[in-house]
Design a protein that fits this description.
Layout (H helix, E strand, L loop, with lengths): L10 E7 L6 H13 L5 E7 L6 H10 L4 E6 L5 H11 L4 E4 L11 H11 L3 E8 L5 H18 L7 E8 H9 L7 H8 L3 E7 L12 H15 L2 H29 L8 H33 L6 E4 L37
Parallel strand pairs: 1-2, 1-4, 2-3, 5-7
Antiparallel strand pairs: 3-8, 4-6, 5-6
Helix pairs in contact: 5-8, 9-10
C-alpha cells in the first residue's frame, strides 16, 4: 500500500459516549497507549451524546495533555447510532474504527484490524465476538435470536455476533455518508455495502465500570429498526396472516352450513366471540406492521437531521504540530540615487 502524505491522519477512532464518567479513565488508559504504539498519525473522536454527568468535563481535562483527542459534543442525546453517524461524518482518517466506550470490545485488537485491512486491501474488518460467556444468559439468548433473525431476513452477509466494533476504509465511510437512510443500523448497513471484508475474533469482556446504555427497551427498538429497515418480510407476514384468517373463516363457514343442514345449530356466543377476537387481532397486527413502514416513510420525507453538533474541539485535516519559525526579514536594498554625481572640475595651471 502506498504511503500516506506526511501529516495526513491514517486512523480515526470514533467512540460514542453517554454518561460514561465511571469508565472513561479506564478507557483512556487502555486506548491511548495502543494508538500511540501504532506509529501512524491518528485522531480519537469522542462523541459526547448529550451526557448529563461529568463526561464532558473529563474529556476536556484529558484533552489538555492529549492533542490527538478530539471532542465532538452533541446538543442533545440523539441515540447510539446517531452518535456513530456524527463521528463518521466528521472523522477524516484514511481508516475509521468505531468502538464502544464500555471496554467490552478490546481496543488491543485495533493494530490487528488495521494491519489486516492494509495488507489484504480490505474495506471492512469486523470485530466478531467468539466468546460471550461474560454476558448474562438472557443477554446471550436475545443476541443469538437477534442475529439469527436478521441473518434470515437481511441475508447471510451479516456476520453473526458482530456489533459496532469495526474498521472501515475511507471508501466505505464515504459510501455510508452518501446513503439517505435516516434511522441507521450500522451492523446491517455496513454488510449491505458488500465491500471486501475480513474478521478478527475476540473474547467479549465484562464492563469494568458504569451501567449498560442498552436496556431491554432500546434492544427491542434496535430489533424493530433492523427488521423494518432491511426487509419487507413483515409486510409479507401480514399478507399471510390475512390469507390464514380467510382460510380459517372459510372452514368455519363450511362447518356452519353443514351443521345447519344437519339441524345441529345451537344459538350461542362463544364461537362468534372467538371469531371476532381472532379477526380483530389479525387486523390489528397487520395495521401495526403497516404503521411501522409508514412511520419510516414519514421520517424519510421529513428529512430532519439526526443530530446537532454543539462543539467540535479540533480542526480536521492533519496532525497537530508546532508552527514553523518565521524566517528572518531580508535586508532592504540601498536606495538608488535620483541622478548620477557631477564630475569634479580640474584645477587650472
Amino acid at each position: 500500500m502506498a504511503e500516506e502524505p506526511d501529516g495526513t491522519i491514517v486512523l480515526s477512532v470514533v467512540i460514542p459516549m453517554y454518561n460514561e464518567e465511571e469508565v472513561l479513565p479506564a478507557l483512556v488508559s487502555r486506548v491511548r497507549p495502543v494508538l500511540a504504539d501504532l506509529g501512524v498519525p491518528y485522531e480519537l473522536v469522542a462523541v459526547d451524546d448529550g451526557s448529563t454527568d461529568r463526561t464532558a468535563e473529563l474529556l476536556a481535562a484529558f484533552r489538555l495533555g492529549w492533542p490527538e483527542l478530539r471532542v465532538v459534543a452533541l446538543r442533545r442525546n440523539s441515540g447510539h447510532q446517531a452518535a456513530l453517524t456524527a463521528g463518521l461524518d466528521r472523522a477524516v482518517g484514511a481508516y475509521v474504527l468505531t468502538l464502544d466506550a464500555d471496554l467490552q470490545d478490546p481496543p488491543e485488537k485495533i493494530p490487528e484490524m488495521l494491519a489486516l485491512a492494509r495488507t489484504e486491501g480490505l474495506d471492512i474488518v469486523y470485530g466478531v465476538r467468539a466468546d460471550r460467556s461474560s454476558d448474562t444468559g438472557f443477554k446471550r439468548w436475545t443476541a443469538t435470536a437477534y442475529y439469527r433473525l436478521v441473518r434470515r431476513l437481511a441475508g447471510s452477509q451479516v456476520p453473526a455476533q458482530a456489533g459496532d466494533f469495526r474498521l472501515l476504509s475511507r471508501a466505505a465511510v464515504d459510501a455510508l455518508k452518501a446513503l439517505p437512510d435516516q434511522q441507521r443500523v450500522y451492523r446491517l448497513l455496513v454488510p449491505w455495502l458488500g465491500f471486501p471484508s475480513g474478521q478478527v475474533t475476540y473474547e467479549r469482556a465484562p464492563r469494568p465500570a458504569g451501567t449498560t446504555k442498552y436496556p431491554l427497551g432500546r434492544m427491542i427498538r434496535l430489533a424493530v429498526d433492523s427488521i423494518t429497515g432491511f426487509s419487507a418480510a413483515p409486510l409479507r407476514l401480514a399478507t399471510w396472516l390475512g390469507v390464514g384468517a380467510f382460510l380459517i373463516c372459510a372452514g368455519l363457514l363450511v362447518y356452519t352450513l353443514v351443521a345447519y343442514a344437519l339441524g345441529r345449530t345451537v344459538p350461542g356466543w362463544t364461537s362468534l366471540f372467538t371469531g371476532v377476537l381472532f379477526i380483530g387481532a389479525v387486523q390489528l397486527v397487520c395495521v401495526g406492521l403497516l404503521g411501522e413502514y409508514v412511520a419510516r416513510i414519514y421520517t424519510a420525507v421529513q428529512n430532519r437531521p439526526t443530530y446537532f453538533v454543539r462543539h467540535d474541539s479540533a480542526t480536521p485535516g492533519t496532525v497537530p504540530r508546532p508552527a514553523p519559525e518565521a524566517p528572518a526579514p531580508a535586508p532592504e536594498p540601498a536606495p538608488e540615487p535620483d541622478e548620477a554625481p557631477l564630475p569634479r572640475p580640474r584645477p587650472r595651471g
